[in-house]
Design goal:
Layout lengths: L2 H16 L3 H8 L6 H7 L4 H4 L4 H52 L4 H26 L1
Helix pairs in contact: 2-3, 5-6
């Protein structure tokens, strides 16, 4: 075996053997409301979780992760509401254009007046789709 390979194995082996701390394993096995696999996957992913000395330390890590997740979800929901409000405006405009085109039909106006309104109205759903797509990025 090459010396470099031996050094690499010796450097990695303790981490592989230690894996998840026994504190995390023990704690996660006592939480019936949460999947054990999820628990042991999440807590050690945070360096503070991996180095926690007691259950209180793990609780702080879990609370911090919850705050992060809630904050992230709030930002995503806020963006979604903003994009939906944009879509509402597109559809209101589409409604105005369509209603105006119907009025023009009833008034006997020429198709050259009506068609551009209907054409523009037909673009509004795509504008909404684009707003939602761009908001997702």
């Amino acid at each position: 075996m090459q010396p470099l390979t031996v050094l690499l194995i010796l450097a990695i082996l303790p981490g592989l053997v230690a894996g998840t701390s026994s504190l995390i394993n023990t704690t996660c096995s006592t939480i019936p409301e949460m999947s054990y696999d999820y628990c042991v996957g999440v807590l050690p992913a945070d360096p503070a979780g991996a180095s926690a000395k007691d259950k209180r330390g793990l609780a702080v890590v879990a609370a911090n992760q919850s705050v992060h997740n809630v904050t992230s979800t709030l930002h995503m929901l806020s963006d979604l509401v903003q994009q939906l409000n944009t879509c509402i405006e597109y559809y209101k405009y589409m409604d105005e254009l369509t209603a105006s085109a119907i009025d023009d039909f009833h008034a006997g106006r020429d198709a050259a007046v009506i068609y551009p309104k209907l054409r523009e109205a037909s673009d509004e759903p795509l504008s909404c789709d684009m707003a939602l797509f761009e908001g997702a990025n």
